[in-house]
Amino acid sequence: MSVLGILGGLAYFTFRLVVTQPGANPPFFWLLFSAELFGFLTFLILVWDAWEIKPTPRLRQLDVPVDILITVYNEDIEIVEPTIIGALKIRGNTTIWLCDDGRNPEYKKLAKRYGIKYQVRDDNKHAKAGNINAVLPKLTGELVLVLDADHVPSPDFLEATSGYFADLKVALVQTAHSFRNHNSVMHDSQGRHEQSLFFDVLLPGRNRVKSVFWCGSAGLLRRSALVEIGGMATYTSTEDFETTLRLRIAGYEMRYHNEHIVQGLAPDNLEAYIVQRFRWAQGTLASYRKGYRLGWSRKLPLRERISYFGGLIYYVTPIQRAAFAISVWSVLFLGVIPVGYAGVWYLAFWGAWVAFSLLAVAALERGSTQPFEGVRNNMIALEAFYKAMPSLFTKKPLHFAVTPKNEVDLGGWRAIKLLRLPIAIGLVTVIGLIYRWSSIGAFDLWGWSWVPPVDPNALYIATGFALLETFILGNLAVKSFRRRQMRHLWRFPVDLTASADGHGAKCIDMHQAGAAFVIPKQALPKNKSMKISINCRSIEGEHKVAHGTLAIKNVGPFTKSGTMVRVGGKVEWKNNESREIAIEQCYVVEPHTARNQFWARRAPRVPVELAAKVGEATAICINLSIGGAAFAISNPAFQIGDELDVVLKLNNERSAIGVLEVRGISEYKDNLSRVGGIMTWQTEGWLADYTTLAMVPVRKSILEFGI
Q: How many helices (H) and strands (E) does the chain have?
């Protein structure tokens, strides 16, 4: 599809130059032609980046000291505390630093309570980059993991990423950013988010052309390489991209590990989204200022410069949108068409290019976006991108604006105000449609006309574009106006047994400040308060109970009969221990379990023959993966749904420990039964010795391993 798209584009643009230029209004011709050519360029860069996505198997974990930096600047404690707990649960030789750039005494108390190191400085010079540089001389680990205040890591983060650093050329391993607040302005109804294309397609594809870059958080860096280049880059407000370029110019390589092993917070509302996108646009554009332009350095291979250039042109797409709008207006208001020929052959060449390119884009994006989602997102950030453009030409210092977090979204006119520029452009387009088509209608009825005539094909194309843009904008405006997101903290969907005032209950969603339960209607208290206990589990598999008091804020039916009700509200935990149990369950255990369940369905099982113990039964492990396993057992006394402790004897006399959730029991052979299900391994670094081959493409396996 990509090849057809490229050929269709080359044919169309050749036709445009040869056939449609004669007789066209020169300024309008070149305006539209340049905008269309810009679109073709972005298409080529997408093909370049997303042509192939290779699997990224886990390599054997390195046993090296790692410093974990949690960078904070006046974020709520409710945001920072889960990140600290997640960092403490990372398996490996780690030292955790809370790097406070807001000089908040509450952060110092928090660091002391959790037994981690606390770093503070006297000023905020160079924002996040300066914050990291201030602590860099104190670090002793070989590797450095940087986490934003809201980015909670998975306990197996180092097991997944540290192995890359066995190659001394590697200075950075970036991982995907997931976002836990599925009610954010970035998410759609299917749970995807606006950055899915970037993290699930573009960055994995860039492994091929070695143009991966650090995304500011969830990246593991080699400390010596960072010291070698003088620390974090501070020239722009996107220290991550700039630091990456400095590392590449110094000869180091970057890798992308295509696993979602960190969860953060997406912007809750349009205002936060626009603040974030403005900073990204401003920083990226500034990195291409005259006299700087690291992304165009001749020390970088051409293929990388092409890939990095895609980031620059993304932030200047508003110029293309302005050119398209002016071209449509010229047809509707002035009757001036930007082509000298708009007949059947024009429609044929243009239609082929559009059809092939749209199909190719859909294939390359691999289901990570919805139709016209990019147009919608560009409309949201349109004004911010325009405001950021001067940073490409000036040399003024850039201000680092932290993305607001833990906010509500009340929609309404406040949201509409943030879309004022695209709405203004849309209104002019609608007026143009009314102006042109009412004139055509008046001419047909009464012979009146107040606009110059225009070629019908050109009018149909301009009208089609105008109606499509108006529909996308209208849909965006209505959704933004209607959005109502009242919670400051995201409630995690859970399924945990609990008790409420001594009655059996089920906890169905929770976070560190609130929860919801399903209870019998007759168990409802009269005083709007309930003593609750929630049965949780630590990441190591231990059962723990969080105790607290629920202040009931809402009650609603849960079953049609009304015998069971949902009660929700704020929770006052009995002590810090219960609060920490709840945080670990929500922010660490739930995402980790969900990911293992995903891999239980998606990761290929590898045949093995390893001695094991399942519960009290002696067994043989016959296949395994990161999320599942199967065992041959004689007369198992298990049932589907049982959770059993597993000890696996590895070939090198090590042992692996985990918990098996039985999902299937069937006949095997030699009077044995096959017991299989979902595995939650206590550690996963050892899996590389057994499963790496299964993650390699079949064709490569045939060639390299003779399979």
A: 23, 22
Please report which residue ranges of 491-549 form alpha helices under DSSP H. Answer: none
Two structure tokens written together for 111 = 């660091």
Report the SS3 class of residue 49. helix
CA distance 61 to 163: 5
Count of CB atoms within 10 A of residue 488's CB?
A: 16
- Using only C-alpha atoms, the chain has a radius of gyration, in whole angstroms, of 29
The strand pairing partners of 120, in sequence order, are 100
For strand 529-537 and strand 564-573, is the pairing parallel, antiparallel, or unpaired?
unpaired
Kindly report the backbone phi and psi dihedral angles of residue 622, in degrees, each rounded to the nearest multiple of 5, phi listed first. Answer: -105, -15
Report, in this order, helix, strand and coil percent for the chain, each rounded to 5.
45, 25, 30
Q: What's the Cα-to-Cα distance from 320 to each of 137, 315, 326, rounded to whole Å?
A: 45, 10, 10
Integer CA distances (angstroms), 327 to 12, 338, 367, 525, in order? 18, 7, 32, 66
CB atoms within 10 A of CB 160: 24
Cα angle 691, 58, 145; round to 5: 160
Residue 584 burial (CB < 10 Å; 0-12/13-18/19+)? buried
List 660's β-bridge partners, or say none. 644, 679
- Residues 34, 597: Cα–Cα separation, whole Å: 49
List the beta bridge partners of residue 492.
Answer: 510
Written as one letter, the residue type at 109 is K
Looking at residue 703, its pLDDT comes to 35
β-bridge pairing 152-153 and 219-222:
unpaired
DSSP code for 409:
B
Decide: helix, strand or coil at residue 407.
Answer: coil
Two tokens at 631?
């065992």
The CB-based long-range contact list for 447-452 (8 Å cut-off, 24+ gap) reads 451/333, 451/335, 452/334, 452/335, 452/336
Tokens of 293: 């332009």
Find all residues with CB under 8 Å of 265, minimum gap 6, and list them. 79, 150, 179, 180, 181, 184, 405, 406, 490
Place of tokens 């696993």: 259
Residue type, 676: G
pLDDT of residue 514: 95
Question: Can you give the pLDDT at residue 704?
Answer: 38
Residue with tokens 């010229």: 330
Q: For the chain, list residues with pLDDT below 50.
A: 693-707
Longest dimension (CA), the chain: 94
Residue 646 CA to residue 657 CA, distance in Å, equals: 6
Burial class (CB in 10 A: 0-12, 13-18, 19+), 374: middle
Q: Are 529 and 550 in contact (CB under 8 A)?
A: yes
How many Å apart are CA 377 and CA 357, to the nearest integer?
Answer: 20
344-365 and 2-15 helices, crossing angle to 10°? 150
The closest of 219, 278, 503, 497 to 398, measured between CA atoms, is 278
Q: If you search the block for the tokens 């390299």, which residue do you land on?
A: 704
Q: Which residues pair with 262 in a beta bridge?
A: 153
Between CA 684 and CA 675 the distance in angstroms is: 21
What pLDDT does residue 579 have?
96
User: What is the phi/psi pair of residue 75, to 5°?
Assistant: -75, 155
pLDDT attached to residue 600: 65
Identify the pLDDT of residue 692: 58
Q: Which helix (H) or strand (E) holds 494?
A: strand 492-500
What are the φ/ψ torsions at residue 205 (nearest 5 degrees)?
A: -65, -30
Rounded-to-integer distance, Cα 352 and Cα 111, Å: 61
**SS3 label, residue 139:** coil
| Range list of β-strands (E), 404-484 | none
